[in-house]
Design goal:
This is Proline racemase. This protein has about 350 residues and is of the alpha+beta class. It is built from 5 helices and 19 strands. It folds into 2 domains: about 150 residues, Diaminopimelate Epimerase, Chain A, domain 1 (Roll); about 160 residues, Roll (Diaminopimelate Epimerase, Chain A, domain 1). The protein binds 3-hydroxyproline.
Length: about 350
């Protein structure tokens, strides 16, 4: 049998969120920077993303990362993040899964007790410290790209809901964050379907009504995730909260969401709820945890910003070899609205 595509993929989940990692079958893609490579995939090479994420090979509740040679000398590896609807400049859960796959399969050397590497994400360089023991990457801490607030207390008119107040911030993707309690949600797993439907409505309205353009890269624009926030609490002396991020086309991030956590930290910092040097425990809807921290304050295109770190754990679940039989009539798969909302 001759295959027209053979892709090696490591299955990895971080705190419940499946973000697979392509480790073989694609040599490189055109582009001078990782952002260019992301753009090339989006415009010329999107069949790879569809092949892996769409059915019958993929499903709506996953992402996939393409590991590539870095384009700058200080990076150890590059990666392009592919989600169900978007290519994104940065993602926390995808970073943690990619680091775990790179170290646990020996693509990059593991040093115990701490491995330090630099990854080149499309949005910029990401410094990583992985805690490693007996060949296992026990946790990954990365320093995210600068996070900042676009707007606080912004009224958004949402059909069927009236006025909903949102805070808008960037943590690697652009978030509309809203108080779950005000719309009657406790962020209980039983609310998942409703959180998605209502969260998508809020996102669509906020994206139209609140313009948001990254001050240094105008190609990064428009709110594309909703973050349902539970109130900030002090538990055992630690600032703690729950959240649920609605990822397009309509599903909940199973992890506590790294870029969402950083967007929330930027909002908390702007509101005086957290200082540089403080930690924040962020819980997912399935009760898994990322530890966030505000490391320092900075400026981005004249805006105040914060540099944050995220710590999380990941586990390899599978090694897949996906192939394309040249006679397969569905090389880029399909989406059906029973499990792919808004398709
Ligand atoms: O951790 C994050 O940043 C994300 N998890 C899935 C969707 C977002 O990219």
């Amino acid at each position: 049998m001759r295959f027209s595509r053979m892709i090696n993929v490591v299955g990895v989940h971080t705190e419940g969120e499946l973000n697979e990692v392509i480790t073989g079958g694609v040599l490189d893609v055109p582009g001078r920077t990782m952002f260019d490579k992301m753009r090339w995939l989006q415009t010329e090479g999107d069949d790879l993303r569809k092949f892996l994420l769409h059915e019958p090979r993929g499903k709506v509740t996953q992402c996939v990362n393409l590991v590539l040679p870095p384009t700058v000398p200080e990076a150890d590896a590059g990666f392009v993040i592919m989600e169900s609807d978007y290519y994104v400049p940065m993602s926390g859960s995808n970073t943690i899964c990619t680091v775990t796959a790179l170290l646990e399969t020996g693509i990059l050397p593991m040093t115990e007790p701490v491995t330090r590497i630099t990854l080149e994400a499309p949005g910029g360089l990401v410094r990583v410290e992985a805690a490693c023991r007996n060949g296992k990457c026990e946790s990954v801490t990365f320093t995210n790209l600068p996070s900042f607030v676009f707007a606080l207390d912004c009224p958004v008119e949402v059909e069927g809901l009236g006025t909903v107040m949102v805070d808008v911030a960037y943590g690697g993707m652009i978030y509309a964050m809203t108080d779950a309690g005000k719309l009657g949600f406790r962020l209980d797993p039983s609310e998942a379907r409703d959180l998605v439907d209502t969260g998508e409505k809020i996102k669509r309205a906020a994206a139209k009504q609140v313009p948001a353009v990254h001050p240094e890269n105008p190609e990064i624009h428009t709110i594309n995730q909703t973050l349902w926030a539970s109130p900030l609490q002090e538990i055992g002396g630690q600032k703690t909260a729950r959240n649920a991020v609605i990822v397009s086309p309509g599903r909940i991030d199973r992890s506590p969401c790294g870029t969402g956590t950083c967007a929330r930290l930027a909002i908390m910092h702007a509101r005086g709820q957290i200082k540089a040097g403080e930690r924040f425990i962020h819980k997912s809807i399935i009760d898994t945890t990322f530890i966030g921290a505000v490391l320092s304050t900075t400026q981005l295109g004249g805006k105040p910003a914060v540099t944050c770190s995220i710590t999380g754990r990941a586990w390899i679940t599978a090694f897949h070899q996906y192939v394309l039989d040249p006679s397969d009539p569905l090389p880029t798969g399909y989406r059906l609205s029973d499990t792919w909302p808004n398709s």
